[in-house]
Amino acid sequence: MKYRRILLKLSGESLQGEQKYGLSPEVLQSYAEQIRDAAASGVQIGIVIGGGNIFRGLSGAKRGFDRVKGDQMGMLATIINSLALQSALEDNGVKAKVLTSIRMEPIGEYYSKAAALHYLSEGYVVIIGGGTSNPYFTTDSASALRGIEIEADVLLKGTRVDGVYTADPEKDPTATKFAEISFDEVLDRRLKVMDLTAFTLCRENRLPIVVFDMDTRGNLQKVLAGEPIGTLVNP
After folding, report:
1. pTM above 0.90, yes or no
2. How is 84-101 classified by DSSP, letter by letter?
3. Which of 127, 128, 130, 206 falls 20 to 30 Å from 112 in CA-CA distance?
4. Close Cβ partners of 157 (under 8 Å, ≥ 6 residues apart)
5. Segments in the chain forming alpha helices (H)
6. What is the CATH number of domain 5-234?
7. 145 and 133 Cβ atoms separated by less than 8 Å
8. Distance CA 53, CA 10 (A)
9. Rounded to an integer, what distance in angstroms lies between the CA atom of residue 212 and that of residue 232?
């Protein structure tokens, strides 16, 4: 395997599958199987999941919610998703631990770097819920922060898109995909990889990012093996 320890960022919206809302058992099972196979190859896996399939703080603010309360509701949504993925992983024979950035024992153990590294060394998949625990920060920022903290070799951003393009491929049929691109070129071209706070954290701490399509079964293993799918964003 190319990587020893990864931070996998999963989209909450992807978890809803074909539904308009909530959790798709089929997507959860697909993700759990891919993560099971990756863990079986000896890679240490930390995971951060978004909450957009349940509640997104920023869109809540547009509907009249106080932004801070909206973001806190979004944090709780990420913990619901974390528990759902933990359950799916355990159903597939994978040891999984949910750590939360907000104290809520017995739902999850309070997050610390030491606890995360301990469980990773013991062969657990570690799912970190609750975002950064602060409003105005996205789960992209949380994944960048946790990836740096657990000293991951790479941040894998698993989405419904198969990489980084010169333009939005859904709007521009001439858009072409990058196999590899530098952080500086992403900034120069104003391409959307992650939100700017998250992207800057990765850039300053030299944490490479791979954007790939997690919804195609087997892709996670291919990325871990170093196959050229998705887009590698290099420091």
Report:
1. yes
2. HHHHHHHHTT--EEEEES
3. 206
4. 9, 140, 143, 193, 194, 209, 210, 211, 212
5. 25-40, 57-62, 67-91, 113-121, 139-149, 183-189, 196-204, 219-224
6. 3.40.1160.10
7. no
8. 12
9. 9
CA dihedral of 19, 209, 173, 56, whole degrees rounded to 10: 30
pLDDT digits (tens, 9 = 90+) for 85-110: 999 999 999 999 999 999 999 999 99
Q: Which residue has tokens 């990836």?
A: 147
Give the total residue count for the chain.
235
Which of 208, 182, 217, 148 is CA-nearest to residue 3?
A: 208
Rounded CA-CA distance 124/118 in Å is: 9
Q: What is the pLDDT of residues 132-176, one digit of tens each?
A: 999 999 999 999 999 999 999 999 999 888 999 998 887 888 999
* Alpha-carbon gap, residue 183 to 187, rounded angstroms: 6
Looking up tokens 């809540």, which residue turns up?
60
